[in-house]
Design brief:
Keywords: Endoplasmic reticulum, Membrane, Mitochondrion. It is found in: Endoplasmic reticulum; Membrane; Mitochondrion. By secondary structure, the chain is an alpha+beta fold. It has one domain. It has four helices and three strands; from the N terminus they run αββααβα. The protein has a three-stranded mixed beta sheet, with helices on one face.
Length: about 100
């Protein structure tokens, strides 16, 4: 059985800065939201955007080249649907992202 601290950690949502432009003015914010984690992969939030062979991450390796004035953030949340699942609903995750 999980402790309350472990459950809180699993339900924690993080907005992580993945790229900050060198230009003096940020004109666009992009928030990358990964999908469901059906394989209990602890790196799911990164692996969603990463090619398994080349290890190139679409969000950090390519998107800044096309949108150099954009700040890119990743919304990390417990997306496990089988193992160590979050007690938060989709609505709660959405509310956390917006707040």
């Amino acid at each position: 059985m999980e402790t309350q601290a472990e459950e809180n950690q699993q339900n924690r949502n993080l907005l992580v800065e993945l790229f900050f432009p060198e230009t003096p003015e940020v004109t666009l914010d992009i928030i990358a939201v990964h999908g469901m984690n059906i394989w209990d992969n602890p790196n799911h939030h990164d692996d969603t955007w990463t090619h398994p062979d080349s290890k190139k991450n679409w969000i950090t390796d390519f998107l800044p080249q096309d949108l150099p004035e954009a700040r890119i953030l990743g919304f990390q949340y417990n997306a496990n649907v089988v193992f160590s699942t979050s007690s938060a609903s989709i609505e709660e995750h959405a509310s956390n992202l917006l707040n």
